């Protein structure tokens, strides 16, 4: 039975077939901040079953996914077996800030989608930012999405439902939230919680690392209360 977030993502779970709504919303908006090109090299940190790779594999030069879940990486590799520009790399579950799998490479676009809330503390997040700066190409853009910057689980849920209603996906999202309430996800969340980092702390970390960062003006994921940070290299 899963007792930590690391355990949870190694096993089959309720998100396997339910990430598409959030990704569809994100994909409709992300190019206002990060334009794509056929020559761009993309790093997808926390790539899951390959939603970003599904959408972008024929629109960029290369795309590399990093994930702690070997199961998700196997799903992604199977889907993209005939796409030679798509790569999935295993992150060590006990050393997930070790980016040696892509050491020496430089990326034009770096995406971190709905990952940071599962980290253990702000020090790990600052290390993530430092790692990103090490693999970013000159002129690169990094977008760190779905950040929880204040307490408010109820507001978060209401926001998800409201946007799902406007997207015509209210019933499917309601069913997902109901399943999550009676799943290992709820148990692990009760035990471990989510990492919450206020906006000012994010900006302070970026300042310490000499990163040019700002929060984007509008929500670009279904969770309206969550924020997205754009870093320009």
Automatic annotation (TrEMBL):
<dbReference type="InterPro" id="IPR041698">
    <property type="entry name" value="Methyltransf_25"/>
</dbReference>
<feature type="domain" description="Methyltransferase">
    <location>
        <begin position="42"/>
        <end position="139"/>
    </location>
</feature>
<protein>
    <recommendedName>
        <fullName>Methyltransferase domain-containing protein</fullName>
    </recommendedName>
</protein>
<dbReference type="Pfam" id="PF13649">
    <property type="entry name" value="Methyltransf_25"/>
</dbReference>
<dbReference type="InterPro" id="IPR029063">
    <property type="entry name" value="SAM-dependent_MTases_sf"/>
</dbReference>
């Amino acid at each position: 039975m899963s007792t930590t977030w690391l355990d949870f993502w190694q096993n089959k779970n309720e998100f396997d077939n339910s990430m598409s709504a959030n990704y569809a919303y994100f994909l409709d908006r992300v190019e206002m901040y990060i334009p794509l090109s056929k020559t761009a090299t993309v790093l997808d940190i926390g790539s899951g079953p390959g939603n970003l790779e599904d959408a972008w594999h024929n629109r960029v030069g290369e795309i590399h996914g990093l994930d702690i879940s070997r199961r998700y990486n196997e799903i992604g590799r199977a889907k993209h077996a005939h796409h030679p520009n798509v790569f999935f790399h295993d992150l060590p579950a006990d050393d997930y800030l070790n980016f040696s799998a892509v050491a020496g490479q430089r990326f034009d676009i770096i995406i971190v989608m709905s990952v940071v809330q599962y980290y253990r503390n702000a020090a790990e997040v600052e290390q993530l930012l430092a790692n990103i700066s090490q693999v970013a190409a000159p002129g690169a853009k990094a977008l760190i999405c779905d950040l929880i910057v204040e307490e408010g689980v109820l507001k978060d849920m209401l926001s998800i439902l409201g946007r799902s209603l406007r997207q015509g996906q209210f019933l499917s999202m309601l069913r997902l939230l109901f399943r999550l309430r009676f799943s290992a996800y709820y148990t692990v969340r009760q035990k471990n919680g989510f990492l919450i980092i206020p906006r000012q702390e994010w900006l302070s970390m970026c300042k310490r690392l000499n990163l040019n960062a700002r929060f984007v003006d509008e929500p670009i994921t279904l969770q309206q209360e969550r924020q997205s940070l754009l870093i320009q290299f």
